[in-house]
Known about the structure:
Layout lengths: L27 E2 L2 E4 L6 E2 L7 E5 H6 L5 H5 L5 E5 L8 E5 L2 E2 L11 E5 L2 E2 L13 E8 L3 H4 L6 E7 L7 E9 L3 E13 L3 E12 L4 E2 L14 E13 L4 E14 L5 E2 L2 E4 L2 E4 L20 E2 L6 E16 L4 E19 L6 E23 L3 E24 L18 E24 L4 E25 L5 E5 L2 E5 L4 H10 L1 E4 L8 E23 L2 E12 L2 E2 L15 E2 L2 E13 L5 E23 L2 E25 L2 E21 L2 E7 L7 E13 L2 E12 L2 E2 L9 E2 L2 E12 L3 E8 L7 E7 L5 E6 L4 E9 L1
Parallel strand pairs: 8-11, 15-21
Antiparallel strand pairs: 1-2, 2-3, 4-10, 5-6, 6-7, 8-9, 10-11, 12-13, 12-48, 13-14, 14-16, 16-17, 17-22, 18-47, 19-20, 22-23, 23-24, 24-25, 25-26, 26-27, 27-30, 27-31, 28-29, 31-32, 32-35, 33-34, 35-36, 36-37, 37-38, 38-39, 38-40, 40-41, 41-44, 42-43, 44-45, 45-48, 46-47
Amino acid sequence: MSTAVVPSALYAQTASVPSQASEQPNVQSGNDIIVTANRRAESLQDVGASVMAFNGEQLENLRVESAGDLAGLTPNVDFKKQWGSKGNASLFYIRGIGQADFNEGSESPTTVYIDDFYILSSSAVDFQTDDVATAEILRGPQGTLFGRNSTAGAVVMHTNQPTNYLEGSAKVSVGNHDSTGISGVLNIPVISDRLAVRFSATRETNGATTKNLFDGPGEGANDTHEGNFLAARAIVRWDVTDDLDITYKYQYGLAKGRNGGDSSQPMQQLEGYTIVKPDGTDGFGYNPTESGQTSTSVISDGINDFRNKVQNHLLTINYDVNDAVTLTSVTGYLKQFKYTLEECDGTPRTICAAYQTNDQKYWTQELRAAVDLDRARLTFGGFYLNQDYANQWTLPIISGTGTFQGHPSIEAGDTPGGLVQYTPNNSKLESYSFFGNISFDVTDRLTLSGGLRWNHEERDFQQVEGLYVHDHPDTGQYTIDGNTFGILVLDAEGMENLIANYIVGPADPVGDPVVDFSDTFKTTFVNYQLGIDYELTDDTLAYASFKHGVKSGGFNNGLVNFSAFDLDAIPFKNEVNNAFEGGVKWQTADGRIRINPGIFYYDYKNYQATAFTVVNGTLGVQVINKDAVVYGVEIDTWANLADGLDLTFGAGYLDTKVKDVTNVGGGVAVTEDRELGSAPHFQASGSLRYEMEMFDGTLSNQASGSYTSSRYVDVLNDPATKLPAYINVDYNIMYKDNDGWHVSAYVKNLTNNTKALQKFNFASLYNTGQINYAPPRFYGVEIGFEF
């Protein structure tokens, strides 16, 4: 396909086409956008697949600072963030398909790759998003080239690599909510054309955005949803010869602070479903709205704290055998320790508190070859993954004098203590695969492609899950609305002390035995795909494909209620997505307008649906296999409307059906077809940017926005946990001088829309429920320079 001029401000970067060895995509090649959806550098308009791509300048102009910011720019992509801050779990949903489980031991069907390294942990993604050269969201199964489990799609990013120029940049920002940011990049050529190093670092902080109105004893009265984030990177690139280069990258990340916490939304079970409780009171008579709770204030007794430390090593070797063949080796290692301490009921009582630790390390090895012949392009290789993972959950629930007995206020004979759910688990995973993909030009306009990936994996798993009675004394008492009750507020050390010294025994009267489960899951499967691309004109490509994608099974793990179902249901099966897709990629002859519509249909077998449950006082996230059907349409557009005026717009429609899902409410089980969780029927996003010359530089104004329609949080489709439609608008104005300095002002969430972004149903636990709100408006100013 021919290309000419592209929108100046949207696609302003220019560079030579990256080699297959470096594969640093999404920069400008003359007048084109280069992506690596097929594991080689290609024009976006020549790739027969649904791809949303951004270069580094676009990401900076749009102030994309986290994985969630990227998702908000892409139609038919939804996103969930644990408590909204950087450094916590980041869960992508592409075309309604995702993983609703925040347990780090559960892998998402949307895989994330940074510099060709698989980021298995959802809470390790944000540390990789500074100094990014490229970002692509690949919709649809990607299991042939991007490996295991990507039945929904893949998020692919490449960081800026060392160059042979002395260059750098620095930025400082300040804003409301005591927010600050500082970042810098320094690139140093050590040996001309042979050895260079690049350093980058980002530090961001913000004060608490949720005020805690609790005025009781202990440490519970901490405001929450603050941010404290650090990411640092060092990259060394050695061009040993003109044909051989070696790159080593070290990535460090640390996020911490008073970050967790939830608000209360009382819920009520009816026959087969759950609603928001009409009178707004929980089973203890507490009404959060009447007590002063809002989207930015809460009254809760517990401590919210977290710490997430990630270290990542990556070694990449590229060797050009000749002009047609390139060999690549990617060796990666990631080590992570994370803990979270969460007050998870949003009330003055100790109804729910959670302490979780995740300790994991894994390494991967990929070897691949790219062969570029006259009419054929071939990529083949192998991949290996080895992971060790350990996790534990400690949840004191219904604790404290009076609360333990289920009384609104302390009565004669009430004693301290309560229930605690304790679930330690560990797993070992070994996976390897072999893959190949070929594209063949039958004619100058017709291209056929096919790919196959053979996978084998084995997972050893062990978990002990139980609900116990404890006799830990109250840490204080609190009175509200005339009711006085004991509370139990523990820090991380206190949680560990509770398990070590205050367990009385299993909570037999509740009916929950202690389950010690261990097993091995083995599976072998094949992903494959077929595609056809046809150039209708020099500027129009039509494509169609069939992809058979498989996500491996595993075990329900972490916060899960083993006693609520048969032990044979602890393992879950492989899910299979038979995906049909077609579309058109069109641009004007001068490249000023691009319109890329697409259509898709998924036929799922054993889809791994996620549901949040509370049974017999025990909390759990359960994965169940159900057949499902998903179909929809989407369109991505780019346009240069006038000199310096650029527009982007995208929209997507989605319809989903998960078959025969059973929901239990009020003791009644109802089985029916339901919608996927986090699958809004309609999404749209766009941006408008105007850039003009002023003084000795340029002045740019940019507005961007997104709309997400209402959706359920999980496949149970409870009315109580349906999320409202959500609109987000951002704005940025920047003056950039030709000498390299700039100043800008920005606002994120211009309308201060703090609608609910997450809900959990605890209705069987004294009519309680959980709600998380969107972060409030952030605004500030930034100054920076580059050389």
